[in-house]
Every structure is written in structure tokens, then in C-alpha cells.
Design brief:
The complex is a heterodimer.
Chain A lengths: L14 H11 L1 H9 L5 E3 L4 E3 L1 H27 L4 H20 L3 H19 L6 H32 L4 H10 L6 H17 L8 H8 L2 H25 L5 H23 L5 H26 L2 H33 L15 H15 L5 H14 L4 H30 L15 H19 L5 H12 L1
Antiparallel strand pairs in A: 1-2
Helix pairs in contact in A: 1-3, 1-4, 2-3, 3-4, 3-10, 3-13, 3-17, 4-5, 4-10, 5-6, 5-10, 6-8, 6-9, 8-10, 8-11, 9-10, 9-12, 10-12, 10-13, 11-12, 11-16, 12-13, 12-15, 12-16, 13-14, 13-15, 13-17, 13-18, 14-16, 15-16, 15-17
Chain B lengths: L7 H19 L5 H25 L9 E9 L4 E7 L3 H21 L7 H20 L3 H10 L1 H11 L4 E2 L8 E2 H30 L6 H9 L5 H18 L8 H8 L2 H26 L1 H27 L4 H22 L2 H32 L10 H4 L1 H14 L6 H14 L7 H29 L18 H19 L2 H19 L2
Antiparallel strand pairs in B: 1-2, 3-4
Helix pairs in contact in B: 1-2, 1-4, 2-3, 2-4, 3-4, 3-11, 3-14, 3-19, 4-5, 4-6, 4-11, 5-7, 6-7, 7-9, 7-10, 8-11, 9-11, 9-12, 10-11, 10-13, 11-12, 11-13, 11-14, 12-13, 12-18, 13-14, 13-17, 13-18, 14-16, 14-17, 14-19, 14-20, 16-18, 17-18, 17-19
The chains are: A mainly alpha, B mainly alpha.
Chain lengths: ~475, ~525
């Protein structure tokens, strides 16, 4: 199993190297499992499963954590932070994410969700002396606890209704007693959507995200906006399609409204931002709208396979390009010591390489071919239009308009760094681009291009989501 | 030369520029000579490969798609790397590879500020990949990807190397540099159109049995697979996507800004090739796949084209900026192209095809000339220019010649497109509203008069008269070798196409006739 993650000891010096190695090493069992894969394996009384779906997501989580470590190394060393705890907490969060992708019962998934998010409360307040960091962490903590209680309340309703914990048993019970349209089930699904809505920061549960993102150390922000979100999405996908499958009509509509509002609001607010991290925070809110839109429509139409395919594909591509975007923000913020990107005028001239990387990531987020983002948007549109449902078509139109709005602020960054005048042309400053960061850059840029030019590699995800839904 | 069939040749034409651009970025900045040389050689090689395709191309079967290939690309959505050319795309493909060579020749000595040849030339080459790819793509998704690839290089070309004049823009509080405003406007307009176009493609995909293949969809479309409100809406969104690019009135407002702000070579490529992507989209995709809807929309397109012609020429009469004038003239000329397409007759669409090529050659040359003059005089204000013939005799003579070509003088390339478009509009496809089309034709005819008017007026203001005193002190350089090398081929082409229009019709006619007979029977 993957659970044999090596937890790092608190030896100050080697801990970073050890964590990196451990994370990478934990990919090995995944690869072996993938190669020798035959049928889904169920353990712990059907509450833990290893299938292709979960293997892919585990791979994603591990890779993202690995990239976060690489992002963190110099950051953590440069300040007087606690190294051992930092890595320990991140790894715990990773463990939570890994559990979520495999869990198939209410308790396990709850533990997974909380294990993934609790360490983040601490990590987002890591910059102890910084007021913004403290404010963000407190907000995050309070709302996080609230969301946990909402999820738990939702779960308790299901348990009360069915007396079952394992997903398969729950849906069997619901089917047998034809409780699909029971109001209790609907209420429970609303509670669960709200609770997880906090984690994935969709409108109207998004308000904590920009503050927390701004206050947290940048690698943690990247992790929050990619891995934490992905964990939430996976939990949402699993719960909605495995537990609340029978009431898809109702939660589908709710989710569709949430998706439309999320895309639009996130984008409109992002247009106003001058802080790159807040800009990415709002942009990631808007992207979350794109990710849940196919899920919403699949709830209404019942064609889960298509919806999950689109959501997961989007999630994976988004994860890497967003990671890359944070990398470039990290580099430029460090270089200029300014968190107002309008002051970054012409800095691409100092480091054309970083300039090109930034351009690639931001235009990929905007969905311009041949960068990976276009395929992500494309599969979402494809899934939205698949059945000709009015909800799907409306969401597709809202999405298309939003794609254009988003371009304005994504392009703005490129505009500033390439086209604006340099602030202090005489100033000679060396641009620091540390080696671990270079690895992150190369890795994410490769994925962004491959996903855009040979999206065929994602075709197996279609197959995988069919397996996920076949059992 | 069998090597070139089976899609290898076309693939090379599409991807060679991209690969060269990547190699270019690896050459160190200091090696300027190497950078320029390499870019030039790679564009010439690309052009040669596209020219070598000519003997391979079977002109007696110009209506069939040839030299193509089909390789699985994105299996899960059944999208393929499907390419090929027929008589419609062949001239445009060659035009594209050819103009790129000229653009690079011109750039060798005349790089706009801030120089940095590496980035500039690499962008031109990436742009070429997008343009060539659009003309050979036979899969909607592939087409979409190439259609969009052109956006990024053009955005940066305008934004980085564009006009730095500060101006006030209605609706914006602060003044803004022309290049910044124009580049994002260009990007947003086009993306707006193409985002909806993509939704339309997806609509066709689902109704057409999950295929993105253009030939297959044409087969389905001509057999009446797409009907009703659905098809009308799909045509509407495709129209939106292509019409922004053409651009048709009233979606044209990005064009004058982009042209005025773009560096010379950017304007040339924009006018010569990029605009054609839109009108090509109508001929390749919208009309053959949705013939009935095209018929229903044709009168609207004709009216918009007629408005575009009149509006474009009137706007030209009001300009003081030389480049802006040429930009608006593009709106008018593309109006003729679209009027020809709207008539849905062989004569009209042939007119559109030759009109596209002619506009590419002539307006490309006009932008070269005006860009060069702006560089020499440091102004584009026609009020200050004057006596150009005396100051820069070579440039002035070429400007006179090109203006004549642009106003449609018989014997030069511009004539055929305008004349035949009007002819097509006079006698449109059976069943189309005659009043609308004849009205549009009359408007178009008035437009030709206005066109002649503003071009002659432009010549009078710029070329004739006595030079203003302010140039006495300045050393003005007439066209140099690189400029002439870029311009003379265009002059020759203008004359050749004017005298032997069969150069174009020979390729396009069969394809156009077969397209229309498939779409509308008979």
C-alpha cells in the first residue's frame, strides 16, 4: 500500500533531502501497482480501495507535494523557520489526500479530508511575526472547523437515514428503500457540498481564500491552491457520485449555480487585483468553477463518466500549470521585493527565461492553445455540451465569456513584464533562480506543453473514469 | 519527390518554422548575423517545400483534398491530425510561406525598436506555423488550435515592438500607449469570437456522430444532417468566430488599432494572411458544412459586407494617419471578399479567393511602404507628408503603383476580386433575395468609386506637391536593397495575377464549383 510513507525524523539538516527522497520513493509502489494492475482491490471491509482512479490521483498528490518541497527548500532555509515540523506537516497533509482518494466509507473519507486540511491551518500561519499571515490562518482555521462540522453533520444525517457507513452499502440501501428523493438526503448533500465548498473555495464559501493565500508562505499557498483543492474535489466527486448518486437531479442544479457564480465572481474580482498572489487566488476560485461545472451537469444528466473525465482532466492540468504560475510569482516577488505586480515593469529583461515561463503558465491558465490549459477548457466544454441540456449549454456560454474575461488579467502579467518600461534600468541585480526551482519549472512546463500538444495521453483517463464508475 | 506526398511535405511546411523558432531561441543573443541568417534560410526552405508541392499537386483534381494524411491524435475525443490541401487552400498556403520570407528579408535591416531580433524573428516563425497549419488542417480541433496559435505571437509583436505613441482612449481614464491598448484589444476580440466558435464545433461534433473531421462533416452536412434552430445557432457562432477575424463590420474595430500600432512586418502579416484565416474559415467550414444555414444567413452577410465597404471607404476619407487609412481600406476590401462569398455562386467565391490573394499581396505591400515611410519621416501624418515623389522617388513610385492596384485598376491583381464580387452579387444563388444582393452590389459599386477617391486623395497628399520645409534639414533614405528585395516580388505578383488571373482560378475554380454543387446541388 501507499500508506508506508516514510515519516521524517526531526534531524534538522537532512530532513529536506529525506522528505524529498521519501516522497519520490513513495511513487515506486504506485508505478508497480499500475504496471501489475488487474482489478480494484478492496480492503478494510470495502472502505479502502485501490483502483486506477485512485492510483492516478495518488500520483498527482505525491508529485504536487514533491514540487512543493522543491519550492520550499530555499524558502525554509533562508528564514529561521522550523524545518522538521514544516516537512512533517506537509507530509501529514499528503497522507490525508492519499487516504481521500482511496476511501470508500464515510468515516475514512472524513478522516482523510481533515488530515489533509488540519496541518494547513498551522502551515498557513507559519510566518509567525506577520500579521497578515496570522489573520489568514485564523480565518482559515475558523472556517475550516465550521466546514468540518458541516460535513460531519451531513454524514450523520446519511448514517441516521441508512444506518450504513460504506458507500456501496449506502447506495444499495437507498436503492432498496427508494429513498433517492428523500429530503433528508437532499439536505445532507447540501451540507456536504457546503462543507467541501469551503475547502475548494467556491462561491459563496470563498472569502477566506485570498487572505489566507496572501498571508501564507508562498509554497504553502501553491500547495493550498493545488493539492488541498484537489483533495476537496476528489472528496466531492467520490461523495456525490457514490453516495448521493440517486439525488443527482437536485444537487446537480445547486452545483451548476455554484459553478456559474464561482467562475464569474472569481474572474471579475481577479480583474481588480494588483497583488499577484491575490490575483492567483481569485483566478483559482474561478478555475474551481470550471472544475465543478462538468460534475454538476453530469449530476443532472446522469452521465457521470463524461463529467468525471472532464473534471479530473481539468484538475490535473490545472494543478501543474498553477504550480508553475506560483513558481513565477515566487521568483519575481523575491527579485523585486514588491507584491504589486504593476511594479514588475520590464523585468523579463533581467531573466528572459523566467519571463517565458511566466508567459507560458499564465496563458495556459487562460486556455490558449497549444498550451495545456486549452485542452482542460475544451474537455469541460465538451462535457457540458454532451447532452444538449439547457443547464449545460448555459454553463458553457458563461464559461466561454469567462474565458475571455480571464484572458484580460492573465495577459496583464505578461504585458507588465515584457512591455512596460524597466523601473531602474541601470540597476544591476542578479536574478536568482535556484536549482530546485529550476526542476519545478522544467517539470511543470513540460507537462503544460505535453498536455497541450499531445492531449491523447489523457485519453486513458476516460477509460479510468469508466472503471471508477463501473463498480 | 514522393517523400512529400502522404502529408510529409505539408507537415514540414507547418512545423519547420516552429522547430526553427525553437532552435533560434537557443542561439546566443550576440550572434545576430547567425540569428538573422538562420531565420531567413528556414523561411526560404519552408517556402521551397511549399513550392515543391506544386508539381505534386494534381491540378486536374483540384477539387479533391490531396497530399494529406490522417494520424490519430486525441483518441478519446476522436480528433485526428488530419491534413490536406485542395485548390482553395493551395494559393493561400503558398501566399503565406511567401509573405513570411519577404517579411523576414525586410526585418533583417529594419527591425523596429526595441531591436532584439531573436525574439522578433522567432515570433514570426511561430506565427507562420499557425497560419500554415490553419490552411492545411482538416480537423476542426486541429484547425482551432492553429487558428489560436497565431494570437500569441501577434499579441507580443504588437505589444513589444508596436507604436509607443500615448493616446487617449474613449472609456479609459488614463492615457495609454497605442501598442498596449491595441494588443490586448486584438487578443480579446479574437478570443471572444473563437471561444464561441469552439462551442459551435462541439455542437457539430455531437450532432455529427462524434467526429471533428471536416470532410466527414461536409458529407453529413450536405446530406442534411444539421437542421433547425440548432444549425442556425451553430452557424451564428461560427459566423462570430470568423467574422471577427475577417473582420466584418461591426466587429472590425480592433483592426485599425492593431494595424496602426503593429510594427511594419506585423501589419503586413496581419493584413496579408491573418485576415484570410477568417474568410477561409467561411469557405472551408461554415458554408460547406451548413449550406442551408449559409443560404439563410447570406443576405445578412451581404448587407454587412456592403456596409463594411461603404463604411471602410468613408472612414478612409476621414483619416490623417497613413497607416490607419490603409487599415480601414482593408475593412473595405475584405467587404468585397465577403460579398463574393455571400453570393454563394462560383463566380462570387472565386472572386473571394482571388480577392484574398490580391489583398494579401497589395495591402501587404502598402503596409511595407507606409511602414518604411513612417520610419524615414518619423510621422504618418499625411498633413505633414507631401512631395514624396521628389524626396523618395523609388518608394513614391511604388506607392503610386500599389495604390492603383488597390483601387482595382484593370490589369492589376485588385481588379478581379472587386469586379467579380460585384458580378456574383448581381446574380446570386437561386433563391436568395435579389433586392438585397443587387442593393449590396450597388453599394459595392459606389464603394469602388469611393475607394478610388480616397486612394487618389492619399496619393495627392503624400506623393505629389512640394515637400514641406521640415524635411530640408533631414537626411532621408530612399528604399535600400533589403526593402526592394521584399517589395519587388510583390509588384511582380500584382502584375502577374492581374494579367493572368488563371494563376489563381486554375487552382480554385474546380474546388469552388465542386464545393457549391455539393452544397446546393446542380
Amino acid at each position: 500500500m501507499i500508506l508506508d510513507l516514510i515519516l521524517p525524523r526531526k534531524s534538522k539538516y537532512y530532513v529536506a533531502a529525506f522528505a524529498l527522497f521519501g516522497t519520490l520513493a513513495s511513487l515506486a509502489p504506485l508505478v508497480i501497482q499500475w504496471a501489475t494492475y488487474s482489478d480494484p482491490i478492496y480492503t478494510f471491509g470495502n472502505s479502502f480501495v485501490v483502483d486506477k482512479f485512485s492510483i492516478i490521483l495518488k500520483g498527482l498528490f505525491i508529485l504536487i507535494t514533491y514540487l512543493t518541497f522543491l519550492l520550499s527548500i530555499n524558502f525554509i532555509e533562508s528564514d529561521k523557520f522550523y524545518q522538521g515540523e514544516y516537512y512533517y506537516l506537509l507530509l501529514s497533509s499528503l497522507l490525508g489526500a492519499l487516504v481521500v482518494s482511496s476511501s470508500r466509507d464515510l468515516l475514512t473519507i472524513f478522516i482523510g479530508i481533515e488530515l489533509a486540511s488540519t496541518p494547513m491551518f498551522l502551515l498557513s500561519g507559519w510566518k509567525k511575526g506577520d500579521r497578515k499571515s496570522n489573520e489568514g490562518a485564523i480565518k482559515f482555521f475558523l472556517l475550516g472547523v465550521l466546514s468540518a462540522s458541516l460535513i460531519l453533520y451531513g454524514f450523520s444525517l446519511i448514517y441516521g437515514l441508512t444506518g450504513q457507513l460504506v458507500f456501496a452499502d449506502i447506495s444499495a440501501y437507498l436503492l432498496a428503500n427508494s429513498l433517492g428523493s428523500s429530503p433528508v438526503l437532499l439536505l445532507s448533500s447540501i451540507l456536504v457540498i457546503s462543507g467541501i465548498g469551503f475547502k475548494i473555495s467556491v462561491v459563496p464559501f470563498h472569502s477566506w481564500a485570498p487572505d489566507t493565500y496572501e498571508g501564507a508562505p508562498l509554497p504553502i499557498t501553491a500547495y493550498l491552491s493545488v493539492s488541498s483543492k484537489a483533495t476537496g474535489f476528489v472528496a466531492l466527486i467520490v461523495l456525490l457520485t457514490k453516495v448521493f448518486e440517486s439525488s443527482g437531479q437536485s444537487w446537480g442544479v445547486i452545483l451548476a449555480i455554484v459553478a456559474g457564480a464561482t467562475m464569474t465572481l472569481g474572474n471579475l474580482v481577479a480583474l481588480q487585483q494588483t497583488n499577484p498572489v491575490r490575483l492567483l487566488a481569485y483566478s483559482s476560485i474561478s478555475q474551481a468553477g470550471f472544475i465543478i461545472a462538468p460534475l454538476a451537469v453530469s449530476g443532472i444528466t446522469g452521465n457521470y463518466q463524461d463529467g468525471i473525465f472532464a473534471s479530473v482532466t481539468y484538475l490535473i492540468i490545472y494543478a501543474f500549470m498553477n504550480m508553475g504560475a506560483f513558481l513565477s510569482v515566487h521568483l519575481f516577488t523575491n527579485f523585486t521585493n514588491s507584491d504589486n505586480f504593476y511594479e514588475w515593469g520590464g523585468i523579463a529583461k533581467h531573466s528572459p527565461l523566467t519571463g517565458v515561463l511566466t508567459t507560458i503558465f499564465f496563458f495556459s491558465l487562460a486556455g490558449i492553445p497549444p498550451l495545456g490549459g486549452w485542452f482542460a477548457k475544451f474537455v469541460v466544454f465538451r462535457s457540458l455540451l454532451s447532452t444538449g441540456e439547457i443547464v449545460g449549454i448555459s454553463l458553457a456560454i458563461i464559461g466561454a465569456i469567462n474565458a475571455v474575461i480571464a484572458l484580460v488579467y492573465y495577459a496583464r502579467i505578461s504585458k507588465v513584464i515584457w512591455m512596460d518600461e524597466l523601473k531602474n534600468p541601470e540597476e544591476e541585480k542578479t536574478f536568482e533562480f535556484q536549482n530546485p526551482l529550476k526542476v519545478v519549472g522544467v517539470f511543470t512546463v513540460l507537462i503544460t506543453f505535453v498536455a497541450g500538444i499531445f492531449p491523447g495521453i489523457f485519453s486513458y483517463l476516460g477509460e479510468v473514469s469508466s472503471i471508477f464508475f463501473g463498480n | 519527390m514522393d517523400l512529400l506526398s502522404n502529408g510529409t511535405g505539408l507537415t514540414a511546411v507547418v512545423f519547420l518554422p516552429l522547430i526553427s523558432a525553437l532552435i533560434l531561441t537557443a542561439i546566443p543573443k550576440s550572434q545576430e548575423f547567425l540569428i538573422k541568417g538562420f531565420a531567413l534560410v528556414s523561411s526560404i526552405v519552408t517556402f521551397f517545400i511549399s513550392a515543391l508541392l506544386l508539381p505534386q499537386f494534381d491540378f486536374s483534381n483540384a477539387d479533391k483534398l490531396q497530399l494529406g494524411n490522417k494520424i490519430s491524435w486525441i483518441k478519446s475525443i476522436n480528433s485526428n491530425y488530419e491534413i490536406g490541401i485542395d485548390g482553395i487552400s493551395l494559393p493561400l498556403l503558398i501566399l503565406s510561406t511567401f509573405i513570411t520570407v519577404l517579411a523576414i528579408i525586410y526585418s533583417i535591416e529594419h527591425l523596429p525598436e526595441p531591436k532584439s531580433p531573436k525574439g522578433f524573428l522567432a515570433l514570426i516563425l511561430v506565427l507562420e506555423t499557425g497560419m500554415n497549419g490553419t490552411f492545411v488542417a482538416l480537423d476542426l480541433i486541429l484547425f482551432f488550435v492553429f487558428f489560436e496559435i497565431v494570437l500569441l505571437p501577434m499579441y507580443f509583436m504588437i505589444g513589444i515592438w508596436g507604436d509607443k505613441t500615448v493616446r487617449t482612449v474613449a472609456g479609459l481614464k488614463n492615457q495609454i500607449e497605442t501598442r498596449l491598448y491595441a494588443s490586448i484589444k486584438f487578443f480579446v476580440f479574437t478570443l471572444f469570437g473563437s471561444a464561441f466558435m469552439l462551442l459551435g464545433f462541439l455542437g457539430l461534433y455531437y450532432r455529427g456522430g462524434r467526429t471533428f473531421s471536416i470532410p466527414e462533416l461536409i458529407e453529413l452536412g450536405t446530406n442534411g444532417a444539421f437542421t433547425g434552430t440548432f444549425a442556425m445557432l451553430v452557424f451564428a457562432v461560427l459566423f462570430l468566430g470568423f467574422a471577427v477575424k475577417v473582420p466584418m463590420w461591426p466587429l472590425h474595430t480592433w483592426l485599425p488599432d492593431a494595424h496602426t500600432a503593429a510594427p511594419t512586418v506585423g501589419s503586413v502579416l496581419l493584413a496579408a494572411i491573418l485576415l484570410k484565416l477568417g474568410s477561409y474559415g467561411f469557405v472551408r467550414i461554415a458554408i460547406p458544412i451548413l449550406p442551408e444555414q449559409a443560404k439563410a444567413w447570406a443576405p445578412a452577410i451581404a448587407i454587412l459586407s456592403a456596409i463594411g465597404i461603404i463604411y471602410g471607404s468613408l472612414a478612409c476619407l476621414a483619416q490623417t494617419d497613413l497607416k490607419r487609412l490603409i487599415a480601414f481600406s482593408s475593412v473595405g476590401h475584405m467587404g468585397f471578399v465577403m460579398l463574393g462569398i455571400a453570393s454563394l455562386t462560383p463566380i462570387g467565391i472565386n472572386a473571394a479567393m482571388i480577392g484574398m490573394v490580391a489583398h494579401g499581396v497589395i495591402t501587404g505591400l502598402l503596409f511595407f511602404l507606409s511602414g518604411s515611410m513612417a520610419h524615414t519621416y518619423h510621422t504618418r501624418d499625411m498633413g505633414r507628408l507631401g512631395g514624396n515623389m521628389k524626396l523618395l522617388p523609388k518608394t513614391g513610385a511604388l506607392l503610386g503603383f500599389t495604390a492603383m492596384a488597390s483601387l482595382g485598376l484593370p490589369g492589376l491583381a485588385g481588379f478581379w476580386g472587386e469586379f467579380m464580387a460585384l458580378l456574383g452579387a448581381f446574380n446570386p444563388l437561386d433563391g436568395l433575395n435579389l433586392t438585397v444582393f443587387r442593393g449590396s452590389m450597388v453599394a459595392g459599386a459606389i464603394g469602388t468609386v469611393l475607394t478610388a477617391g480616397y486612394l487618389l486623395w492619399m496619393l495627392q497628399r503624400v506623393n505629389l506637391g512640394e515637400p514641406s520645409e521640415e524635411w530640408n534639414e533631414m537626411e532621408l533614405h530612399d528604399a535600400d536593397g533589403y526593402e526592394l528585395a521584399a517589395w519587388i516580388p510583390l509588384v511582380i505578383l500584382t502584375i502577374l495575377i492581374g494579367v493572368f488571373p488563371k494563376l489563381i482560378f486554375g487552382a480554385t475554380n474546380d474546388a469552388v464549383v465542386s464545393l457549391l454543387s455539393k452544397a446546393f446541388g446542380g
